[in-house]
Write a structure and sequence with these properties.
Bound molecules: zinc ion
Strand content: 25-35%
Radius of gyration: 17 Å
Number of strands: 11
Number of helices: 2
Strand order of the largest sheet: 3-4-5-7-8-11
CATH topology: Trna Endonuclease, Chain: A, domain 1
CATH architecture: 3-Layer(aba) Sandwich
Shape: globular
CATH class: Alpha Beta
Length: 200
Amino acid sequence: MICPYCGNVDDRVPVPELAKTRVHLGACSKCGKEVWAIPTQKRSEKSQLATVEEGERREEILVKTYLEHEGGVKSKKRRSADDIDREVFDQDGNLIYFLEVKERSNSLNAYDKTKFPFAKIESGKKLIEETGLPVYIVLKFIDCWALHRLVLELDYEKGKEPFAPRYRPWQRSKTRQVPVMIPVESLEILAWHDLCEEVS
Ligand SMILES: [Zn+2]
């Protein structure tokens, strides 16, 4: 398991492949906090539009929170669905990194590999080649924020089952996509926990 508070990986306790119910995995061997596997929470029944608007606002809040902690003055959306979502600029308007923020309604240890469209890995690698700037994929779980820095030389694992990613309305695509599979134990856990829940 990987601790959502300090990032310590404890090899003695495996991350469930896919937790179906809440599982108490135990206390972190480094910081002592209790670690839970909590599966995806059901979304409440709301109109599609309300959900979309809420999602938009939510994403803005998440991005703003990330920038406040990790640097960057403003961000701009990029429009292609298969691309990395945002460009982030410093106070002088210089582009400093690319960012994709995804929110998950499960805890960090709910499954052993997290997935998103493989196309984003390919376009992210292209951005690194073209600009030399870093590309960050940030995953906001219910109990922590986690980061993957895209690595140009890394041969990413492709999932076998295609899936239908949830895009913003103007990016909605009907095509099912091959996902990339990123082990949650390889993620970098961010030190701050804004907007996270007390899990127990
Ligand atoms: Zn810990």
